[in-house]
What does this fold into?
Amino acid sequence: MDYISTKDLYFNFTQFFKVYTKDDPFLPSQEHIGKFINQKDVKAFLDLLVGQYNLKETKNNTNYPFSTEEFREYFKHTLWMLPGVKEAKALADLLKKHEIFSLFEIINVAGDGDEKADRLEKKHLDNLNAHIGNDPSKTRTITLSCGRLTTGVTVRPWTGVFMLYGGQNTSAISYLQTIFRVQSPWQVNGFIKEQAYVFDFSPDRALKIVYDMASNKTANLLNNNRSNDKLVEENITKFLKFCPVIAIKGSIMKNADVKYILSEIKRSLINRVASNSFDDDRIFSKENIEFDLDLELITRIGNTISKSSIRNKPKTSIVINQNNISENETVNSLEIIKHPKTEEEKARNQRLKEIRNSKLVLRSIAVRFPLMFYGKDDYLDENFDLSNLTELIKDDFWEEFMPKGVTKQNFKEIKYYFDKTVFIGAGNNIR
It folds into this structure.
């Protein structure tokens, strides 16, 4: 399936809804022009939405938006966002032939390729309103768009939007601007729209949008280019109160809290750190190290480690000498100076060296944790945190696996420099 990115593990809507064109070298026949390349999969997706696709985990499932009469009554008018004009036209053809979706009036406002006619936004809005009618409770519409009617337009009867376009790089502003098209209050004949829904079948993308929104807001509040983990979490919490996120897997629904969102956002990082047994730079909080590094603290702990016998430990251990750098790092740091450096360059290089050496100290401690995590369900559960980790690990385990001289108090002092979500997530993977 070429619409699943194996590199970043995200769903590619553009590939999924790709259609045959007359210039396609793999065009089976002229009759296939304008039809989906993944026609069978797209049909299965539509069946899934109405609860008809015969998968074990979806059997007797009532969570999909058109799977029950009650849901179909609530989602009488929805907006579906598609990757492009050709894709919208192909989907419109399938919807009109579908057993359930043929009960809806399919309004394609994406256009038909006539650029002059397609500029007439008001024409499309008037056409949509005409199909919705004066009493929207007696009509059903599905509006297909690839951008039209998503800015400066209010269609109050819309109760849901289906995000079937974009990918990992979708702009948070564009995404939020689109989904808030459906939040306008509305009531008719005793029906009150109390809630509106956004359906995104690329969960990683949806969660990333929430995270990016919170990060950008935090950076603006701080008036700089950095973020702040605590403020990001607070902003996500505020957003979830206003716009709850519900994750659905098969028949299981789960409210996505801050911890869930952060762990899912950083899942690929977590997996890599776990597979590398914590011997990985991704375990660090980049911003805390770069902006708030306590060099005196790290040096003090590094000097303690340098006096221990960790040279004989497995190769994942880092040997720190009296200068707080490893022997390999000493070689790498010797540079041939070809031209005099400015004071600014010297300061920058010195700072980079301090950060690099500090990571070596932190790494020499981090790589010991997998040994204490592995198979330790007896005293560690999935709710352990950096704040209570030292209390949960037994003293004899700590002394056995940690570099000599590194105390629990030392870890409490440096835990700030680890990415909490990645550290805990990788620990749970190993545990």
